[in-house]
Amino acid sequence: MSHWSEATQERAREIISRYPQKRSAVMPLLYLAMAEEGYLTNEGMEEVAAWVGITPAQVQAVASFYTMYKRRRTGQYLISCCTSISCMLLGGDDVLHAVEDESGVPHGETGADGLLSVEHVECIGACGGAPAVQVNYELIEGVTPDKARDLVRWLGSAQPEVVNTDEMQELFGGVRSFDWAIRDESGAVGPYPAFQPLGTVGSEGNA
Amino acid sequence: MTEQRAPDVVSITIDGVGHRVPADSLLIKAAQDNGTYIPRFCWHERMNPVGMCRMCLVEVQGPRGPMLVTACTSNVADGMVVDTRNDTVKKAQEGVLEFLLANHPLDCPVCDKGGECPLQDQAFSHGPGESRFVEIKRNYEKPIAISDLVLLDRERCILCARCTRFADEISGDPLIEFKSRANVTEVNTFPDLPFSSYFSGNTIQLCPVGALTAAQYRFRARPWDLQMVESSGLHDTAHPRLSVQVSQNEILRLVGVDNDATNHGWLSDKERFGFQYLGSEGRLTTPLVRRDGELVETTWADALDRVAERIGLIRDEDGGGAFAVIGGAHGTNEDAYALSKFARVVLGTNNVDARVDDALASHFLAATADRALISDIDTADTILIWGPDLKEEHPTLYLRVRRAAQELGVRLVVVHPRATGLDDRAAIKLGYRPGGGFELLDEVADGKHPDVRQALSAERVVALVGQASFADGPKLAESVAAYVRNKAGSARILPLARRANIFGALDMGLAPDLLPGRVADEDAGRAALATSWGDMPAVRGKDTRSMLEGLDSGEIRFLLLVGADPARDVPDPRQATLALESAEYVVAIDLFLNDSNRDADVIFPAAGFAEKEGTVTNLEGRVQKVNSIAPVPGQARPDWEILDDLAERAGRPIGLSNDESIAKEISEVAPAYAGISWDLLEWEARDGAVVPLSGAQPLSHIPVALKGDKAPSAPLILHVARTLYDDGVMMRHSQSLHPLAPGAVAHLNPDDARRAGAQEGHLVRVVTKHGEGEFSAVLDDGTPPGVVYVPFNQPGAGSLGTEAVVRVTAVGK
Amino acid sequence: MTTPLVVTKRMTEFPADSHTIDRYEETGGYEQARRATGMSRDELVEEIKTSGLLGRGGAAFSAGLKWSFLAPSRPSYLVINADESEPGTFKDRQLLERDPHQMLEGIIITAIANEVHDAFIYIRGEYPKPARRVQAAVDEAYAKGHLGKGILGSEYDLDVMVHLGAGAYICGEETALINSLEGLRGEPRLKPPYFPAAKGLYMQPTIVNNVETVSNLPHILAMGAEEFIGLGHPLDTGTFMLSVSGHVKKPGNYELPHGITWRDLIYDVAGGIPNDRELKAIIPGGASSPWFVPQIHLDHQITKDMCAEAGSMLGSGAVIVMDDKTCMVRAAERIVRFFAHESCGQCTPCREGTTWMEMILRRIEEGQGRAIDLDLLLDVSDNISVGLGWPPKMTTICPLGPSAVSPVLALRDYFREEVNAHVELGGCPLRPVEVHA
Ligand SMILES: Cc1cc2nc3c(=O)[nH]c(=O)nc-3n(C[C@H](O)[C@H](O)[C@H](O)COP(=O)(O)O)c2cc1C
Ligand code: SF4
Ligand code: FES
Q1: A106 CB burial (10 A radius; 0-12, 13-18, 19+)
Q2: What distance in Å separates the CA atoms of residue C356 and residue B183, rounded to the nearest whole number?
Q3: What angle do CA C48, C52, C54 make, to 5 degrees?
Q4: A109-110 and A133-135: which strand pairing?
Q5: pLDDT (tens digit, 9 = 90+) per residue, B98-115?
Q6: Which of B212, B466, B796, B805 gives B714 a disulfide partner, CB atoms 3.0 to 4.6 angstroms apart?
Q7: ∠ at Cα C149 (C148, C152), nearest 5°?
Q8: CB-based burial of residue C296 (10 Å sphere; 0-12 exposed, 13-18 middle, 19+ buried)?
Q9: Which CATH class is domain A6-65?
């Protein structure tokens, strides 16, 4: 008696079948639950519990351990500003403040219109391109406070259905950790990592 | 089979002193057993170590110099050199303590745990005195109710994971868990999904601080105000050891006492919180007699004389055959002995039965040869459970078996008509249609379930057998036991029955075919007893069902109910109610008015648990001492005293002068109980003494009826079984637990429900030949198609009798 | 300086398509895996042992030796640690994005050497693009029959699956990673067992290796152990990747042989300090490692042993450079904050201690410091890492808690004056105070 769409259920079945033990599927299923409802609801956790055969309390124990399973409704775009050591050294805090100021959304919150959520995060592995920012986990390196303001404005006006890391890097980025070389055509459609086939659905997944 | 290989021993040095310790022990335990207490919070002897609190850090000499290790996660090794109190260790331990106190509220004066709190104790003995932590402490909403019975104060929690581990590893109900991580880690339930576990109270006892408290006990007392006495719990026929704690003459709480024999310190919530009935308003405190159709208070003398007179009259007119005695399983062995003697000597009847109808044969329960000990569960290769869902009816055994299957590698085979609490740990689970047990046994014997056969051919097999469903005849369990015994030569059997001290009662002869000491009520047994008891009836007695029939037919005129409520408690309550109505004279000894004694002619108020001393015998034959600590309410008296007085007045004294002398008399006249004395149980054998099976019939002599009744082929058949919480009279008077009973529900397989047009929570009408009622539908994958499961004796539920075939129709929302 | 590139060679030569299977195979890809299908476990383990390859995930343990510990029970599993979350580290991201087949080939070799038929790649959740690239590579490899049933024309079956983390640094610790992969909280397991090779995933023997570690394997088989040893330092063979970040003109990943000096690295390879400021401190091996200062360490060679002698480690190869304008209290606070935030919460000293340290440091930085605070900080640290030595004598289950102590050691040893100045001044002497929640 699943509340999920038939397609999501099919993916859930496939994910579970790939692991030697059902319980291992908890993490990908939690991403599915988030993608299904936009954030991780109690019903989502109950659903995951039923799929893998553990109690909702056990699912919650896992889900609450990780920072990427959002328990509150999150904006269409989740802007994550790194303020860990390397980014801090190069102005990560100023980038965060610029994002907060331009969007009017303090970190840890979601704007009233539901468009943007802002958070500061610990190291996202982009220290060579500090300060770094992610939008729905799609990375932009070498962001200045001014570029960060541009990014916020762009998200508000363009409201892209899919956010693409290369596009954003071109528009708002600077120094990179390394040469990104070839363009990645995929992108994220929600505040969860766009990854196929066993994670959540990105732009290509809907095709 | 219970003896274990002598463990290898290694030499270790603790604080400069050499010790020889078992090679497989944890350092913390080896140290403790040799007089060195290493402080700890998360470690608990009955659970797997997690090494989380880090309080037990000690220094061990390693290949690269001294290392700090947690004693709770380190195995001893030969030549190990340990320092538990040098400066490094002290500093580390004090550091941990300081960290724990940093965020701990200073509310000891209002905390239930104050005075018995290891954290408080440690802080006194090791603490730095003044806190160096000047920052703001963590803050949580004050206690939240994580269940109807348990409150959680997260500010006080030190995250030792004892409660969560218990819930997951020991009780199998992982409903409380850690949430979040790092410095904001907390223990919690899932929203709107309370910690409703039959064992939740153990977490209160396990919690080393006052984070988990009992709703019922909160703010009731300070530990130093409590008086306590050790005893055994009677809600569960394993008789878990516990401590009864009293303040100002009122029982305030029961606490499990750790012992290897029975419960490892755990108690079911029914055991732990079910004592509330003792202090209930409804307790009977004066004798009652019927005058002008009304029960009115009277004096003991008046009540006793009336009954004695009536006994004399009927005895003279119709002899012992006109008497019936039902009950006696709720008192001590001394009470049961008095009742047994009273029935035989004063009433001159063998019509006596403590089983109240839904148990296995009395000789099978009391005198099965090769009866298993509870501890055999730990060392078995295979455990077969073919009987009730242990979680519902035998919670102590449930925990024990669960641990054996999970931790000790015991192969578990569960046979039951529907899902049980142990299925998740079972290597093999077989289901069958209620009433079709014999067919399945036949199949197993014919080799149709080779995995079961193979499991049962292991060297050490323990079979826990009982009645899984009211639809199964009582003979099935005996046949299963006999089959197992034939299959595995060294199999041990643990026959299951519920009801307080039922095994003690049977051992005292409260069955139509048994005399005290597991002796068959036959000429030889009677002859041996005659020197002490005098003349006894030789007529074969009736069991509960026949007695009820006898009442109905008028053959039996006088009924003595001792702590029994057949109108509620037998599988077919309608029959019992009709029988009770036709009784000429009914006398009851009880704690409460109930559906069976409400129309009695005389009612004597009885003393209850913790209000009297005595012995009890559990399902493995272990005799333990129970003790009194609470005053008897009003004029209530122990059963034996009432019966002795009555015998005197009826002109046939039974000569019981005090409780301890009864125990002595038992040890003299009941062969199995020779050598059992209160002295022994109070000093040398605090965990009790197992009485031998003298007089027991080896089961193989009982013909194995592999062919029994076939299950009815009707599309829907009824499965009635007991749940831990029900509408029994003690439960009804335990205000914390009674609301937790499932109520009038019928479990249906979702497919059957769909066919009947019923959804979850809808009312359905369930009809049998003998009864019908409306129940709230529970859609349940654990109930197989074609089976309707109705928990027995629920508040608000009618009775359906024992007829197996049912019809279910949807009534509406 | 000419450096022979190994794991970054292909991506340097073919930037446009180094991640595709065509380019990979054109440049000799999967040949070593194919060869490995004909080799025995013993041969492979021996070869890698001989090569001296040390794990690149931080602990620098011999890869071949670890494989040799594999317990006999089967199934055995392989888990690739791509959780890269140590502040300062971003080398695995490049390897995942730019040359995923190189890692896959390493996985095949490791799997054969350890009789593994199910391998998992645990990629941190914040790395969706690397995960996509790896997944695409996995799909390509399956399509070509390099993975799946009868890989590379052999009888050997191997399934590889990508598993995404969800934001928890501690899941980089191998036993926490295994718990996470089992669907449990990512809490490190008790030791012993010291290696998952004894009891790991589903309590079965499990090899956990870092992305860079396995990416080296095809090259070791191709060039032979001897040549691989010749690339690096006798005790620290081959090349290794350094992620350089912070105040340098040319931040980025550099594949280098061990043995150059910190001065070479910072002033030559990474182009020196921007605006020609002075160098103040170096974090040599990721946020966990104790810091170096130019006065003492600048001319030390970058080898595992030199670092260890100087009381620190090369760890995950993350070098963070700080110039003279950097407030050391603030930098320390940021690193301690990281560990406090990422503590799994099991151990009392880590859970309570790191947060307490963070609070004290924040207070000092914000001008509320007291004269006794540095000593308090040191004593609290001492209760997490007894004696404040290196490697730490831990009061915890895993090294995360003790890692938080590293920056405090720097304050004690090199920047006491700066801490005192904060207290005396009632604020930061280097930068106006900003208060953030
Ligand atoms: C707190 C902590 C975090 C770690 N994080 C990582 C990580 O992100 N990536 C990694 O490869 N190893 C990490 N490690 C090391 C792993 O535990 C393990 O040693 C490593 O993955 C083994 O692979 P290797 O031998 O190939 O280096 C971490 C260790 C600790 C204690
Ligand atoms: S040291 Fe910290 S992160 Fe490591 S196990 Fe202990 S609490 Fe968890
Ligand atoms: S008792 Fe050993 S760590 Fe808690």
Answers
A1: middle
A2: 10
A3: 95
A4: unpaired
A5: 999 999 998 898 999 999
A6: B805
A7: 80
A8: exposed
A9: mainly alpha
Distance (Å, whole) CA B437 – CA B430: 11
Determine if ligand 3 sits within 6 Å of the CB of residue B40: yes
Q: Is B412 helix (H, G, I), strand (E, B) or coil?
A: strand
DSSP designation for C266: I
Query: What's the topology of domain C235-317?
Result: Ubiquitin-like (UB roll) (3.10.20)
Instruction: Please write the tens of the pLDDT for every residue from B650-679.
Output: 999 999 999 999 999 999 999 999 999 999
Spell out the residues 6+ positions from residue B411 whose beta carbon is closer than 8 angstroms to its own: B381, B382, B383, B405, B427, B428, B455, B458
Q: Is the pLDDT of residue C1 over 50?
A: no
**Dist. CA A160–CA A170, nearest whole Å:** 15
Six-digit token pair at B723? 């749940």
Q: What b/e readout covers B414-426, taking b as 16+ CB neighbours within 10 angstroms?
A: bbbbbbbbbeebb
pTM of the model: 0.96
* Nearest-by-Cβ selection for B92 from C168, C345, C395: C395
Taking alpha carbons only, the member of B524, B541, B269 closest to residue B392 is B269
- Partners of A57 on chain B (C-beta within 8 Å) are 174-177, 188-190, 193
Distance from CA of A173 to the nearest CA of C (A): 15
d(CA A6, CA A113): 30
Q: What is the CATH number of domain C328-425?
A: 1.20.1440.230
Residue B10: HSE in the Cβ half-sphere, 13 Å Cα cutoff: 18
Residue type, C317: G
Cβ–Cβ under 8 Å, residues B186 and B140: yes
Element (H, E) at B411: strand B411-415
Domain ranges of chain C: 12-227, 235-317, 328-425
Query: Which strands make up the sheet holding A138-140, listed edge to edge?
Result: A109-110, A116-121, A77-82, A133-135, A138-140
C145 and C89 in contact (C-beta within 8 Å)?
A: no
Contacts of C432 in chain A (CB under 8 A): none
Please tell me whether the peptide bond between C193 and the residue prior to it is cis, using omega within 30 degrees of 0.
yes
Asked if residues B35 and B22 have their Cβ atoms less than 8 Å apart, the reply is: no
**B contact test, residue of A58, A69, A71 with most B CBs within 10 A:** A58
Per-residue pLDDT of chain A (207 residues; tens, 9 = 90+): 688 999 999 999 999 999 999 999 999 999 999 999 999 999 999 999 999 999 999 999 999 999 999 999 999 999 999 999 999 999 999 999 999 999 999 999 999 999 999 999 999 999 999 999 999 999 999 999 999 999 999 999 999 999 999 999 999 999 999 999 989 999 999 999 999 877 777 776 433
ipTM above 0.85, yes or no: yes
Q: Using a CB-CB distance cutoff of 8 angstroms, which residues of chain C are in contact with residue A130?
A: 245-246, 251
Tokens 């036993």 locate to C175
Pair of tokens at residue B732: 């009804």
Q: Which amino acid appears at position C300 of this protein?
A: H
- The backbone torsions φ and ψ at residue B339, rounded to the nearest 5 degrees and listed phi first, read -70, -40
> Which of the following CATH numbers is that of domain C12-227: 3.30.465.10, 3.20.20.140, 3.40.50.11540, 3.40.50.10490?
3.40.50.11540
- Encode pLDDT of C259-292 as tens digits: 899 999 999 999 999 999 999 999 999 999 999 9
Q: Which CATH superfamily is domain A77-201 in?
A: Glutaredoxin (3.40.30.10)
Measured in whole angstroms, how far is the alpha carbon of residue C316 from the centre of its chain?
Answer: 3
What phi and psi values does residue A57 have, to the nearest 5 degrees? -65, -35
C419 vs C411: CA distance, rounded Å = 7
Nearest Cα of chain C lies from the Cα of A195 at a distance, in angstroms, of: 6
